[in-house]
Amino acid sequence: MKIMSMGFLATKDTPVVWRGPIASQLVQQFLGAVDWGELDYLFVDMPPGTGDIQLTLSQTVPLTGAVIVTTPQEVAHTIAEKGLRMFQQVKIPILGIVENMSGFTPPDSDEVFHIFGEGGGTSAAEEFELPMLGQIPIRQDLREAMDNGTVYTNDNINSIASLIAVEAMAVVTNEELSPFAPQEINLANDGETLVIKWQDNVEHVISAFNVRFMCPCAHCVDEITGEKIVKETDIPPDVKITESVPVGRYGVRFNFTDPSPGAGAGIYTFSFLRKLGEDAAANASFDV
């Protein structure tokens, strides 16, 4: 098992007081600059709620899915719900819910004390129709193992890990079958044409001019009314796409030769690109 943490880079007496953008840069460094080698899985433990780190991660890496960790009390349920809805908004599948600190059983006793309440994780799973992956109680032997840096094995935790792997595999399999997941995104004619091949073997050819004109960013589309701000005359007729950059698992961002502010700012979701491709194909058929 390989681990990377900010704790390895700072002393115990040094507080890490960073604003969001700096913390987001560190996340990107951990992903790209660490020599991870060959991995079966990469888990990222994130702070509660929503923020720059969560958004950066979801837009930088094509995440397979997110596991929502909550505790039984109502306030934790509310915070976990916000994180859940954020991941849904950026099209990251929710693999399931884990309830941490679900109860406490003292050593040499079978009695369970529900210090933080009971049933919060289960009710959240039922409300959002998600798998309840398991419950992790407070255990003194687990705490001692963490403090001592020793290996801790537990059938319950192993079961939860196995369920996470099963849910992740189901996501990957379903995505491969989805027609809205691009198989290939290529540039042709020196960047004047975008060619997208989808999982259902449909191929769309879209001009760079049309991709630029249909940019969904706030510079090009009014966020309130949805009306287009950019005009065709604002875009150079010979505009080219210079680069396509993946955005998480749900979209892509394009860089253009167009120097205007909106160029390169828009995130094109896969469903939006599919619609652009279908419209381009329909217009081409009509022209013929």
What is the arithmetic mean of pLDDT? 85
Catalogue the unreliable spans. none
Radius of gyration: 23 Å
Tertiary shape: elongated
Describe this structure in words.
- There is one protein chain.
- By secondary structure, this protein is an alpha/beta fold.
- The protein folds into two domains: about 5-175, Rossmann fold (3-Layer(aba) Sandwich), CATH 3.40.50.300; about 180-285, NE0471 N-terminal domain-like, CATH 3.30.2020.
- About 35% of the residues lie in helices and about 20% in strands.
- The strands form three sheets. A three-stranded parallel beta sheet has the order 1-2-3, with helices on both faces.
- It is elongated.
Please render the helix and strand layout as text:
Elements: H1 20-32, H2 52-60, E1 66-70, H3 74-89, E2 94-104, H4 120-128, E3 132-138, H5 140-148, H6 155-177, E4 182-188, E5 193-198, E6 203-207, H7 208-213, E7 241-247, E8 251-256, E9 268-269, H8 270-287
Parallel strand pairs: 1-2, 2-3
Antiparallel strand pairs: 4-5, 5-6, 7-8, 8-9
Helix pairs in contact: 1-2
